[in-house]
Amino acid sequence: MIVRTVTLAIALVMGTLTSQFPEFAQQYRQRLAGAIDALGEVVADFRRDAEAENLSPQEAIARLESSGDSFARRRAASMERTITRLDRLIAQWRAMERGGPFARLNALVGEADPDLVRATASDFEPAVPVTIEGLVSALVGLLVGLFGTRATVAGSRGIRKRMRRRRALRSTNVP
Description:
single chain; mainly alpha
């Protein structure tokens, strides 16, 4: 009786936790869009400055890199990182927008930006799963919790059974 109660409790906790994954993905997407907007402004400003000097962004970065000024060289490196990150975030956002609900979850798992994940997690607010992906995620978690607990209980019962048999064999073999 207690094993069934614990199994059910674990399954319900797992279902509740996994039901939050689509909500986390949705809050992550909001942060992703905000990061794209912010980085896009920085890159656009840099491109305008480069164009004012009749330079492409790559030529402007190269000029900064070749400068004798250590600040300019650091700025070149930071702009390269910013442009690369912006391109990566845009690609992830497009993958999330093109895909259906479950493809969005997959895109988050496979290509998440660590800084955005940390920021999303720090401000995460759970929500009731009323979307199909929330309900499916809850069901998957419930089943993982249910079968995982049952497998663990069954495994521990088997181990205990083998230990009892070994003890019984040892006690019958003692002279």
